[in-house]
Design brief:
Elements (H helix, E strand, L loop, with lengths): L8 E2 L5 E4 L16 E2 L5 E5 L8 E2 H6 L5 E5 L8 E2 L7 E3 L6 E5 L21 H7 L10 E6 L5 E5 L34 E6 L5 E4 L2 E4 L6 H9 L1 H8 L7 H4 L6 H5 L4 E5 L6 E3 L12 E5 L6 E3 L15 E3 L13 E5 L13 H4 L5 E5 L21 E4 L5 E5 L12 E4 L5 E5 L12 E3 L5 E4 L2 E3 L4 H10 L1
Parallel strand pairs: 1-3, 2-4, 4-6, 5-7, 6-9, 8-10, 9-11, 10-12, 11-13, 15-17, 16-18, 18-19, 20-21, 21-23, 22-24, 23-25, 24-26, 25-27
Antiparallel strand pairs: 13-14, 27-28
Length: 471
């Protein structure tokens, strides 16, 4: 008997491990939080419990105020992790200190939190719509429920083939985005209960399908949706003659949500594309941290310049950026890999790219037969002052391989600073005589410099290249 719904017992249990209990059906009694407090639990690990269908009730998830890690492995009947309660509470903070959620080999898992039900509908207030940047909602009355995991930083989802979202019943996933990347037709008319899952500290979702970043306060539900359906959307992109179809043709407009969500964008086997990023869509790619373009037979230009008046005649990539203005907005780009682009003569059109790519960490250029220099000095409108200092603040790795025409990294009178560069590899670049023709290269943290298979223990890259060419 419990008086006033108060806890009668506080357990000092700090760690719970349940392993290979094939007949275990329940961990906690219903409403056990009225009887016992487990607030000192920090990690929970569940492995090989083949009859278990869920781990926690909503009330238990709220009460485990110290839980930091939850691991669930190899439970073949597991359908959900947290079973949500029916109730009028619109804001639910679950597992308030959970930092790590690891879900592995759960063949029947469909969601983390079960569908939220409610018998009543309420209207959105105008303030809520303004706060969320939602420009248009249908006129139906809807219940808004926000589920929060305020400390969650690591979410791993491996071998969970049925997983579709974090908490179901939340969205019309084929959302539309306007030119300012704001959601415009969200949620769907047939969604009676709208659930948002907020994870303010979670930056990345890792899964069997790959990994995907979460930008700003975007909802982890949509991140999981786009992650699960990434291959489907990539295949649809392959049918487009231009990415402008995404904004101009109704049947492709659902891809706009994916484009504005994907931080690691891969454009593969899009054989009809002439331009990868149209000039009037540059702003939609500002969030992209990694861009991969492969096996696009007709591609002539990656970032279309505003002054590009006509199409070229050769069916091979000739330009990544036509001018510096095209690079603006890619300040989050971390990885740049260029492979087998045999008509490409340079990577960057001028030296000012360093200021436009402050987050660039890795630069790889492989098998480009006509590549003469990485940074061109041919742009007369952007010639730096003699002896100017160029800094790539985050660049940690440079790999130049099988570039038969490459003579140098940059031919201008410049001083390069690579304060975080630890690895430089130059291989099968027979015409490369120096890194920077008339300037210096400052690499204080350089650990390994490899030139034609030989390792040099020096920070003076220019001298090392000259040394090996003198042999």
């Amino acid at each position: 008997m419990v008086a006033n719904n108060a806890y009668e017992i506080t357990y000092k249990l700090q760690s719970l491990e349940l392993r290979y209990l094939p007949k275990l059906r329940h961990i906690w009694l219903p409403n056990i939080v009225r009887l016992v407090s487990f607030k000192m639990l920090t990690p929970i690990e569940i492995r090989g419990c083949g009859s278990l269908k869920s781990v926690l009730s909503e009330s238990m998830a709220i009460s485990l105020v110290q839980l930091q890690q939850l691991y669930v492995y190899d439970c073949e009947m597991m359908e959900e992790i947290i079973t949500m309660d029916d109730g009028a509470n619109q804001f639910k903070t679950l597992l308030p200190n959970l930092e790590v959620l690891w879900l592995v080999d759960l063949p029947k898992l469909e969601c983390v939190c079960s569908r939220v039900h409610h018998e009543h509908d309420i209207l959105f207030c105008e303030d809520y719509k303004e706060d969320r940047g939602i420009h248009h909602l249908n006129n139906n009355s809807k219940l808004q429920i926000e589920v929060s995991f305020p400390q969650l930083e690591y979410l791993y989802l491996y071998e969970v083939p049925r997983l579709k979202c974090f908490c179901p019943g939340a969205y019309d996933y084929d959302i539309m985005v306007d030119e300012d990347t704001q959601i415009t037709n969200f949620p769907s008319d047939n969604v009676a209960v709208v659930v948002t899952v907020t994870t303010p500290k979670l930056d990345m979702v890792s899964s069997s399908f790959g990994s995907m970043g979460i930008a700003g306060e975007r909802d982890v539900n949509l991140t999981i949706h786009y992650l699960v359906h990434r291959m489907k959307y990539k295949e649809e992109l392959q049918q487009l003659e231009t990415l402008r179809c995404i904004t101009e043709q109704h049947q492709y407009q659902h891809l706009l949500g994916y484009i504005t969500w994907e931080t690691k964008l891969e454009v593969e086997r899009c054989h009809k594309l002439l331009t990868c990023v149209p000039s009037n869509m540059m702003h939609l790619f500002q969030h992209v941290k990694s861009l991969g373009v492969e096996q696009c037979e007709c591609l002539e230009e990656i970032f279309e310049s505003n002054d590009y008046g006509g199409q070229g005649t050769q069916l091979e990539l000739q330009h990544i950026w036509r001018n510096h203005a095209s690079i603006l907005g890619f300040e989050y780009l971390k990885y740049l890999t260029i492979r087998e682009c045999h008509e490409l003569k340079y990577v960057f059109p001028d030296v000012s790219v360093a200021k436009s790519l402050p987050q660039l960490e890795v630069l790889e250029v492989v098998e480009c037969n006509k590549m003469k220099e990485i940074i061109s000095s041919n742009n007369k409108h952007s010639i730096p002052k003699k002896g100017a200092k160029i800094i790539f603040p985050m660049l940690s790795r440079i790999e130049l391989e099988k570039l038969s025409s490459l003579s140098c990294f940059c031919p201008s009178y410049l001083h390069f600073e690579l304060p975080r560069c630890e690895l430089i590899i130059i291989k099968e670049c027979p015409k490369m005589e120096t890194f920077c023709c008339f300037g210096t290269v400052y690499t204080p943290r350089l650990v390994s410099f490899w030139m034609e298979g030989r390792k040099f223990n020096t920070n003076d890259v220019n001298e090392a290249i000259k040394e090996i060419r003198a042999i």
